Amino acid sequence: MAQNVTVAGASYTDVPAVSLPKTGGGTATFYDQDSLTDVFAAKDHTHGNITNAGALQTSDITIASGDKLVVTDSSNSSKIARTSVSFDGSTTTTALTPKGTWETFLKTAPVTSVNGSTGAVTLTIPTITKTTATLSSSSWNSTSHTQSVTVSGVTTSNTVIVSPAPSDISTWVAGGVRCTAQAANSLTFTADTNPSANITVNVVIL
Hints:
Layout: E1 3-7, E2 10-15, E3 17-21, E4 27-31, E5 38-39, E6 48-49, E7 67-73, E8 76-85, E9 92-96, E10 102-106, E11 112-114, E12 117-119, E13 129-135, E14 146-150, E15 160-164, H1 169-175, E16 178-183, E17 186-190, E18 199-205
Antiparallel strand pairs: 1-2, 3-4, 5-6, 7-8, 9-10, 11-12, 13-18, 14-17, 15-18, 16-17
């Protein structure tokens, strides 16, 4: 990747490039073409290294908009690939992976589309209320076999899930109990046969 050179009688080791003044002003830089594997950035920027095996260096490389990426094959110095690299704040960044392929990575969140509308997506997580109610054996209507209990948070339209406490499943099933109506802060239960024991009901309000 670098050569030992002698300039004006002075010897230098591991020199990857030599810059010489041009007659008309400025400098001309000559790189070692036999085993060049460096990734060169523009003047005043740092540079990194990609090995012949395709492995990337572990430290970050400072790259500015307009810098050039130069990659050569050490087995054939005439094979040079050069591309422009632009980091201009757009939503994607293109990078060379260890496999030698160009991949695009997102830098900012993409624009989303939901039901034909684009922009930010707001997810609303519903409030879940868990509580219990007691169906008293003495509160069943003897004719309609119904009983209403107060459950705070219930409305006429929200989703309510009810189930008997594990210890009362047998009584619930034997009486054919089910929830048949809901109103503001109230649930109504109906039974095929009025239960003779109290039933604890677990209630989840979505």
